[in-house]
Amino acid sequence: MSRDTRLSGVLHVLLHMAEHQGPVTSEVLARAMQTNAVVIRRTMAGLRKRGYVRSEKGHGGGWSLACDLNTVTLADVYEALDRPPLFAISNRSEAPQCLVEQAVNAALDRALHEAQELLLASFQGVTLAALSADFHRRLERHPSKRIGIDHV
Fold this sequence. Notes:
There is one protein chain. This protein has helices at 6-19, 26-33, 37-49, 74-80, 99-124, 128-141; strands at 53-56, 62-65. 54% of the residues lie in helices and 5% in strands. The longest helix is centred in the C-terminal third of the chain and has 26 residues, at 99-124. A hairpin with a 5-residue loop joins strand 1 (53-56) and strand 2. The protein is mainly alpha-helical. The radius of gyration is 19 Å and the shape is elongated. It has a two-stranded antiparallel ribbon with strand order 1-2. Helix 1 crosses helix 6 (128-141) and helix 2 crosses helix 3. InterPro entries: Tscrpt_reg_Rrf2, WH-like_DNA-bd_sf, WH_DNA-bd_sf. This is Transcriptional regulator. It comes from Azospirillum doebereinerae. Pfam families: Rrf2.
């Protein structure tokens, strides 16, 4: 079963961008994330629409942050990604008339809804600034005390 890593990936990109002076091209971000530049552009479009990033075309252009890290939460970024699925668990739907399947699905729906609400509430309590602060604490303990957008 495949996992959706868009939220983790875009948070990674945003924190790298916060550390970088000036715009960063989709190609550079794609190399850092080991993906295609088209994927980066598609993912960043939702963030741009919400005003979290901006893009500049032409020589010296690229993506840059357009928000205050203290005001943007994980929940905000999750919303900007159009709320990707949080869980891989899903209901069976092969026999919707089956009363057993209905009972199982009702119980799973209830539990998954409660878990999702709890997770989203937790996302509301974590800002990009908090992630950045954690990164800086880790960087202080890192032997080289430097990590660039290319992870070197």
